[in-house]
Structure formats: structure tokens, C-alpha cells
């Protein structure tokens, strides 16, 4: 029996126990269409901003016992019109029509304001559709009308118009709007079949951590996450700002309390009872340095952060990940005396460090809201997600140690 995790409120339920929403459109064998009704549960979940009118929607129903969906649809018992829309039992949010048919993996993207979260998701999805997708024989598709619209807008702004994303809304509402993608990877024993996974991303604003209502939703989201990507903006680290300002570039950001955000993530997971061995949390944590294009002058010439990893054979190479891990870890230790790494080592049992540039080059001087003239030319943007997918057993890994699982190198 497939369990479905609601990507909006994170409640878990068996797919067969989910109600359906009538389309309220008429056209069935019974002449009258069902009247829409006020969905007070959904209205309360969405908060006052949506307005009472928007909460008037098709009525919910449970299909008759033993009735199987045909073509993903079941008929409404009152108007007989088939509907594909399944709904969360707890918050009454509609799921995209094929969301319930695949396993889902929730990826939490966490970081201070302006760390580069929205740019990261947009460029990452673009790369999964093109270069990376091609290498791993992967395909991604936005699921549901909301994600499709936002995905199209973000992609058009960044790739066609050269505009960086607007700052993400800091209201609690932002957490109600996950980005849902269907990721299709080769699967099955001989790699002949296809395995579909629903990827749920939250592009939350840093300030979502404040405010009690936002906080509850945020912790629910972290606790449900199968993997966390914690983004660290080197330009918000005081020592990096100092080093770089000596050579001149204008730095647009004020330092943010990135250490505190890292500490908050662990505290919130613990408050939800998530624990692993020895008191350390088990959720895999990818710590990723963003905007590495800006710190190029501080990197050694042979640094693995200068170029993309090669995955020619559709396999992740552990040796490459470890080289990046060591490099970023030692950079961070040099920059803050090791405070962040020590804290994360104490709190998490599965941590890997990454570094990427979503743009490949800084935005034009004096115009941080514009993409570089050639458009985004990302470096290593895919590494954190690919590692998290591999940790879930969704991608093959070439291990460096013959005693460990996977393909030996
Ligand atoms: N140099 C460089 N700058 C970047 C990169 N990615 C993002 N930026 C800069 O960082 C700014 C913020 O990026 P966003 O993606 O909006 O960051 P965010 O974390 O979503 O920001 P909020 O939603 O406001 O919290 C952009 O306007 C760019 O100026 C990158 O790869 N390199
Ligand atoms: Mg944003
Ligand atoms: Zn829900
Ligand atoms: Zn009906």
C-alpha cells in the first residue's frame, strides 16, 4: 500500500484512504452538477489571505469501497462525473493528479536571506532537464498547475530575460507552496524500466524561521525531509568579506547569522523527535557553499570547485565527492575557525560538504538583479541533490572502498 505524504502539511496517509474532490462541472449521466461548497478546513490552512470566495470548491467524497480508479479517475457518487483530484485528509489541499502514484522525496532547501535559494532551484531544474538529465538518463517535469506556472516564469525570467528571481515572500504562505517535480530515472533490475519519484522542494525565505505559525509549518517540513540542503553564502561570512574587499569587488550583502540557521535546523528536527545514533540526527545534510564564482580568487588553482564533476557513465564518483567535501570543509574551517563544521558534526551523522555557483560568474557590476551576460553557466549545482538521491538509493555510486556498497573503483 503506497503511503502518501502531503507536500503542503506533511501529513501521511495511505493512498487508498484519501478523499477525492468533485470537479463541480456537470456533464455526467446525472443532469445536475454538484454545487461547490465552502471548504473551511482548506480555508483555515491557507490563512486569511486567500479570501472566502476562493475557498468555495468542489465537495469532497470517499469513493465506494472496492471502487477502483479508471484512468486515474473515480466518479463522484452524486453527479457521476469522474475526477482525478485526490485531496489531503488533514489540510484538504489538492494533489496534482499523478502525485499519489509515485514515491515522494522531500528535499528541504534552507539558508539565510539572499543566499541563492531561488536561483539554485531554477538553475538546478534547468540542468536536470538538459546536461545532467542527459548524463543520468533522467527526466524532470513540473507537476500540477502551480508548479508549472512558477517554473515557467522563473525559467523565462532567468534564461530569456536575464533577470534574477525576486526576493521570495517572507510570509508563512510561502511555505504552503512547494515546488513539485516528477523525476524519472532508469530503474528496475537491469535498468530497463523507469522509476518515478516526486521531488518536493521548498524555496522558503530565511525569515520564515520567525513567527510561531511559520515556525510550526517549517519544523514540520524539516522533520518530513528525506534530505536537507543547507546553503551557506560565503559573501555573508565576515572573514570572506574582509579578504575579498581587499581586492576591491563590491559586496552587496550584510552578514547574516548563518551559524544560527544551521543550529536552528538541528534544534527543530530534535523538537520533532527526529534522532539517529548517539543522539546525532540521521537526516542526510548537504552543506553547500553558494556563489563560488565570487570566491575563486581564494581557491587553490587545482581546486575541484573550479569545474563540474564528470558523470559520463551515469554513475556518481565517491572520490570526486570526497575531494569536494574535504576542500569545502577546510575552506569553512579557515573562514570561521571550524565553528560551523564542529556544530554540524556534533548534530548530524551524515554530512557532506559541497560548493557550487548557479551562475558561473558574478552578476554584472552594480546590477545584482541581472544574470551574467551569457546566461547562467553553472558549476557543480547538481552535486548536493545527486548525493541526496544516491543516499536514497536512487542513483548508482562508484565507491572508493571495496568493502562498501555500490560499484567499486
Ligand atoms: N555571484 C553570484 N551571485 C549569485 C548567484 N546566485 C545568486 N546570486 C546573487 O544572490 C542574489 C539572491 O539570490 P536568490 O536566488 O534570490 O536568493 P534567495 O535565497 O532566494 O533570496 P530570498 O528569497 O530573498 O531569501 C541574486 O540576486 C544574485 O545577485 C551565483 O551563483 N553567483
Ligand atoms: Mg528566494
Ligand atoms: Zn495536507
Ligand atoms: Zn459531484
From TrEMBL:
Pfam families found in the cross-reference section: DO-GTPase2 (PF19993)
InterPro entries: DO-GTPase2 (IPR045528), P-loop_NTPase (IPR027417)
Record-linked SUPFAM superfamilies: P-loop containing nucleoside triphosphate hydrolases
Domain Double-GTPase: 105-294
Origin superkingdom: Bacteria
Gene3D superfamilies per UniProt: P-loop containing nucleotide triphosphate hydrolases
Protein name, UniProt field: Double-GTPase 2 domain-containing protein
Species the sequence originates in: Streptomyces coacervatus
Organism phylogeny: Bacteria, Bacillati, Actinomycetota, Actinomycetes, Kitasatosporales
